[in-house]
Description:
Blueprint: E1 56-59, E2 62-65, H1 82-99, H2 103-115, E3 126-128, E4 131-136, E5 145-150, H3 155-160, E6 164-168, H4 169-173, E7 180-186, E8 192-198, E9 205-211, E10 216-217, E11 222-231, E12 237-243, E13 249-256, E14 264-268, E15 275-280, E16 286-292, E17 297-303, E18 312-313, E19 323-328, E20 331-336, E21 344-349, E22 359-363, E23 368-375, E24 379-386, E25 389-396, E26 402-403, E27 412-415, E28 425-431, E29 438-443, E30 448-454, E31 466-474, E32 480-488, E33 499-502, H5 520-523, E34 528-532, H6 542-546, H7 554-569, E35 578-583, H8 585-596, E36 601-607, H9 613-617, H10 625-632, H11 639-648, E37 662-667, H12 675-686, E38 695-700, H13 711-726
Parallel strand pairs: 33-34, 33-35, 35-36, 36-37, 37-38
Antiparallel strand pairs: 1-2, 3-4, 4-5, 5-6, 7-8, 8-9, 9-10, 9-11, 11-12, 12-13, 13-14, 15-16, 16-17, 17-18, 19-20, 20-21, 21-22, 23-24, 24-25, 25-26, 27-28, 28-29, 29-30, 31-32, 32-34
Amino acid sequence: MARTCAGLVILLTLTGGCDTQSPSSDVAPMSPIQPNGKFTVSDRSAPPVAERRPHAATYHGITLEDSYHWLKDPDYPQVSDPDVLAYLKAENAYFEQQMEPLAPLIESLFTELKNRQVLDDSSVPWRANNFMYQWRYSPDAQYRTWWRKPYLEDAVETGAQAWTLILDEPALAEGHEYFRLGGMSISEDGRLLAYSIDTNGSERFMLRIRDLTTGEDRSTRIENTSGSPQWSADARHLFYTVVNDQWQPYQVWRHDLDTSKPDQLVYEEEDEAFFVGLSRTQSDAYLIIASGDHVTSEIRILAADQPLAQPVLIAPRRSGHEIDIDHQPGWFWIRSNRNHKNFSLFRAPQTDPQEARWQSVLEGDDRHYLTGHVSFKNEVVVTARIDGLDQIQIRPTNADPYLITFPESAYSADLGTNLMFDAPMLRLNYTSMVTPNTVYDYDLTNRALIERKVQVIPSGYDKTLYHTQRLLAPARDGAMIPISIVSRRDNPAGKPGPLHLYGYGAYGMAVDPSFSTSRLTLLDRGFSYAIAHIRGGDEMGYHWYEAGKLNKRTNTFNDFVDVARYLIKERYTQAGSISISGGSAGGELMGAVVNAAPELWGGVVAHVPFVDVLNTMLDTSLPLTPIEWPEWGNPIEDAQAFALIRSYSPYDQLKTGAYPPMLVTAGLNDPRVTYWEAAKYVAKLRTLKTDANVLLLKTNMGAGHGGKSGRFDSLREVAQEYAFLLNSVDK
Length: 731
């Protein structure tokens, strides 16, 4: 787990892949908004002023004063303190008031974004055991419905079979301000569906079991679960993970469907810094219990046909050793970084998979970064980056390995939904900055890509109107920072224009150069859009991640600023014409670069920002603090880590001066970045800023880390963000 929106990806054993339709673009250039300078504060009312209350704590001989500590509700995760709620509501009212003059623009942008979305969308069907599955959106629905029909070898006959509704998200979401479907898992015989839901954004999911022969739910209700539940081979037992009061997934339990026995504890993690996950091998033969933090992992396996057995440890944990595992009959395939930080691929006998028996098959090196693998009946598929570019390698059992060839020189490609162990096709997801999301099947026999679905943009999209580049910007220490940039071809050549710069840079999570329909709203108004592949992510390999964490964390912030200055130097844009955004750890990035170079930014959006880094890393009562220490450092025990974090923590480094227009968001039920980080940051900044630029705080009172959950509600939040930026940035 991490302070990242990427960590919010739903873990589905039954999943439809990444071929969703997101909003897209009209092809004609839009008239740019012509604001009167920066987005400044309306004269109608003063912003809320949070009370200052004395609070101090001393570490390593240094006393930290924090006048806004009281904004952390002492009963969190319950938030009921009337003063806290009153302040958040006052900020929300101020947000609505300041945004009110932009209401017509917001509505126009929302309509534009919605018109680019296929309202009656559906996934490419996929097979799992004896059924075909598909998700769908009805035209006015915020959430999906899930369907299936029997699989028949005869394609014509299969097409004639009627689809059956197995899960109705809109019905489950009815009456809830927030709804999120968590893990889904269908038993091998197709009779039972285990699924979990979150109705407040806390990411504490309720697990239910549905009998698909009747369509009725069993009486079972299991609270505080996480991740994806897994069935035993005979569907008599269901395995699931639970979270503790600190939101740490720490236990695996077994539920017996055929008896009234209480659920049995299978595994408990005693280290408060390790989170537990549950998955299944591609062969369906084994359950995998994985435990780890950001840099160390440990794996146990349990035969799916022996649910009452004890899990078997594959390799005891040792600091810095990361592994993952999959299974073929006779072999376990293991990805490990024991030989090289860019990982290597090993195999071990199924009868004795202990580390001493591992055999090296594919070694990573400084250019080849192995990011994952899946073991099928007749081949092993390895995902990798070579010189920073996504690659998919096929390793047949009885032939030489080879790479899949893709149609563009710069793209993002990954495995899609592949639930069959012996399928003749490999489902892939493909995209680039100018190519809409595309679902391919790769014919393993003929070694050919078969296009199954290209993202449709109802209002129209002409790829030839846009062009993308990959640039390299020199950082101040000599590192070359990749940049992915896209713009309209009819933007005036050599004339600096508005540009939006996005970054993340943490947890070794890459930001892929992928397509975005929402982004076209900015491109068609004359913006360029750039992604800074800064250190802290792993775009260029594991070393890229290591170069942006712990005592090298400031490289991440410096890289982002240096990318912006390079784009100014090369006349892509100019100071004051750059809007920036980032969320979670990317929100920390926003706070840090605003402190470092406020003059560069025309407008800033910081989503659920991790800006109170020092206080959070000092607070062991919070959900994620112990597991985060390998990423940021432990300021409780390490005085140097304390000093370094304090030197860049955005909240601690706020100073009197001028700041650009800023929109900061939070989620009241967010377990990853707590609501008070954003609230404290805005409260303190209001007392220090000397400019008239607007500073807004918007707290979703019924949601968590990912903001509003419905697809149209999410688009409206994008429309608000874009309206804010369009009225902030110098044109």
